[in-house]
Structure formats: C-alpha cells, structure tokens
Amino acid sequence: MTSKxxxxxxxxxxTVILDSVGIGIMIPVLPSLMTDVLPGKTVAEAAVxxxxxxxxxxxxxxxxxxxxxxxxxxFGRRPVILISxxxxxxxxxxxxxxxxxxxxxxxxxxxxxxxxxHSTAAAYVADIxxxxxxxxxxxxxxxxxxxxxxxxxxxxxxxxxxxxRIPFFAAAFVSALNAVACYFFLQESLDxxxxxxxxxxxxxxFKIFEAITKFDGLKFFLLVFLLYSISTAVYAAIWPYFTxxxxxxxxxxxxxxxTIYGICFAFIQGVLVQPTINxxxxxxxxxxxxxxxxxxxxxxxxITNGWFLxxxxxxxxxxxxxxxxxxxxxxxxxxxxxxxxxxxxxxxLTALSMIITPLSMTWILSQFSNRNSEIYxxxxxFMASAALLAICVSVFLIWVPKSSQIKNFKN
Length: 411
Description:
Blueprint: H1 7-26, H2 30-37, H3 43-75, H4 77-97, H5 101-113, H6 117-127, H7 131-160, H8 166-185, H9 207-214, H10 218-232, H11 234-247, H12 251-302, H13 306-318, H14 322-331, H15 339-368, H16 380-399
C-alpha cells in the first residue's frame, strides 16, 4: 500500500527519534551504573556484566520478535508500537531504581520482551511505501535513529555528570511521551484486506533458521545480514566501556562522541543513501558500506588518542550506508502480506547478534584490558569484528549475485 500523504512517515520517524533518544540517554552512564551496582569491580570487569545484561535483553527480543511481528500482521502495527513504548518506560524506571544486578536483569527481561518499535516501524513504512520508495524511507528511519542519537547521548552525558541514575528516569519520560504522541497521532497502516490470522506456527523464534534454509537466494541475504549485525553490534556492545577504559572518558565525553556519531549517521542515512543507490545501485552500495566499515574498525582498534577517534567518526559512520540498501533488497523480495513477518525475522537476527556480540566482545575487552596480561590491547574487539565483517563480504560476493532472482516469501 502506497500513501501519498507524508504525515504517517513524519509521525513514524518522530517515533523512532524519541525511541532512540530514550536509548541514547542511558548509554553514556552504563560504565558508572555497572560499577555502582558492582562495587570493587573495574570498568573491564563491569563490562562483562554489562554484556550479560545486553545479551539477556537480546534473548527476549529473539524469542518475542516473531511473536510481535505476527501480532502486527494480524492486529496492526499501532497497538504493538504503543504497548512496546509503555513497557520500555517501565524498564527504564526499574533500571533507574536498581540496587543490584538482579534488578537490572529483571528490567532487561521486561524491556526485551516488548522492544519492537524499530522493526514494527519498518513494517509500517513498508506498508505505505512503493518498491521505489522503500530504500529511501528505510534510510529515513535510520536517519531518525541517528537524530535520536544526536540528542540522547549528549543529554545522557550531561545528566550523567549529576548522577548515573538520572538519565534512566529521563529515558522513561521520553518513552512515555513517545507513547502519548503515537496514541493521539499515529494511524494504523495495515490494510484490513491483507491482515493475516494470528497463528502459533508463525511465532516460533527458531523459524528464522527455516527461512534461511528454505527460500532459494533469500537465505544468503539473511546470512549476510546476520554476520553484518554480529560484527557491527560491537559499537553498541562495548563503546562506553571501551572509551572509558582506553581513554578514561567521563559520561559527558562518551555522550559527546555518540552525539557526533549520531549527527554523521543521520546525515548519511537521510541524505546520502538514495543518491548513492541511484549512482551505483543497491548491490554496490552494500559493498561500499561494508568495505568502509572494515577500514573504520581496524583504525578504531589501533588508535591511542581519543581526539583521533573523534576525528575518525565521519568515516566510521559512513559505513552504515550499506544497511538500508541490504534491507531494501530483502523487503522487495517479500510480498505485502508478510512485511511484518520479514521485519520480525530481521529483528530476531539482530537480537541474535546482540546475544552473541556483547558476551563475546566484552569478554575479549576484559581479557585485553587487564594491565597484568602480556598484551594490553582494548581495541581487540574491533579487530575481531573487522575480521568477521571481511568474512561477511566474502559470503555476499560469492553467494549473492548482482541480479539474484528471489521468489516472494509466502505462506
């Protein structure tokens, strides 16, 4: 379904912006929060526990992503978005009040169950966009996420200088405000004529592996997406811990670095995606983004000066140009009745990457951040991610041909 009215797009982008503001607010204070609830632990040791919490959150997303995707196909996108935002606000409140790792664990479980706003927003956009509009509009979603990261981290960094708990209450307020805005202004996008009946067979989270193996061609797209997600999840998994350990950055400086990244991210996703695709095509845009990402990761790994890292930010953020092109390639091969299910699969793959990456990369960070070890190299997680992304590029080049013909994803 294609809408000539731009209002729904503006509202859904605003939703993504406010949602990412809420997420971005808390990131700069994660090292302080973890060392607060784990007295006596170093930043590197606290990072391991932070990775465990992030992985628990992702496990919940992995399990419930297909459920919420199928629910949105059956009952609409709007109610799923609203419920998710309400529970995310509750999650932030719990984390702000937490005095132990177990309270943080409960909050992450609750938040992970309903953390579906991004994937459901993507399905919403797919509902109201033509094939030609999808790549650009997926880019707008990415830009909205980037704008939220312009505002969120700098706010969180400033509030974090007051106390590590304040940003979580601010994030709860933003999520509640987001829910109110959607309740009053967001209209349902799913055409009742193509609504699917909710079925238990569609909510098995392990069905994503069936999708990877069952559909000729599509399985390699999904495999590439998974490898890409695992490698690039290193940023979200370790950035605050890495910069606190490597450069002794405060919450304010961590927030500033993320804000700069968010500005570049928003510009690239909102301005450069479609012109790049028009110039070199979706396939080559994916390769361009992946190649830049590898170079950026290697440079981040070896940099020893924090200001050099800030200067590298535009290059690092340019790598994201390939993601909306890859998403558009997949979405264009799925019929309109299953856009929500596809986005649920993508959300599950993203969640799977966030199960694997925080556990593995925070462990690598802790091992190479021990000053008593033979090698002190906090950048090791980024080097490992660059190697994995190189494998991803190889898979894409070998098994995803430029003119791949993929059958529509149907029941």
